[in-house]
Design a protein that fits this description.
Length: 134
């Protein structure tokens, strides 16, 4: 991938700089969605062509990988890579920002509270859970 600049924020945006990519990461990270149909059935109702292209992009960028489903070898499931899991602190900060600036959204208040009281412990716990996913 060609980078636009040496700016670290620009670098992240080159990888996940659109809303759909972040929503896919959100669903894999927080909602346990792993199949194409589960990801397609998110509240935002992503069009199939957008979902397909974003999954391909995230895989190419090294943030997710796909594998055959253990129960149904015809199906593919998507998982976060280590780089994808490392997006966890960014995602948590986005939730905290929304809690402060858009409180009318569907805020997981217990999660926000935990970020404020035990951020490191929460990140460690969630990271371990993501590593344990089959």
């Amino acid at each position: 991938m060609t980078k636009r600049s040496d700016c670290p924020i620009s670098n992240v945006l080159d990888h996940v700089g659109d809303k759909w990519s972040l929503l896919i990461i959100r669903d894999l990270m927080f909602f346990g969605k792993h199949s194409y149909s589960e990801l397609q059935n998110s509240d935002e109702k992503m069009a199939t062509n957008i979902l397909s292209s974003r999954l391909e992009k995230l895989e190419k960028e090294g943030l997710i990988y796909k594998q055959k489903d253990k129960q149904d070898k015809r199906k593919k499931v998507y998982r976060l890579t280590e780089a994808g899991i490392d997006m966890l602190p960014i995602m948590l900060e986005m939730i905290v920002w929304s809690a402060k600036h858009a409180p009318e959204t569907n805020i997981p208040n217990q999660l926000v509270s935990r970020v404020h009281t035990d951020r490191a412990g929460l990140i460690q716990e969630l990271t371990e859970q993501l590593h344990q996913q089959p």
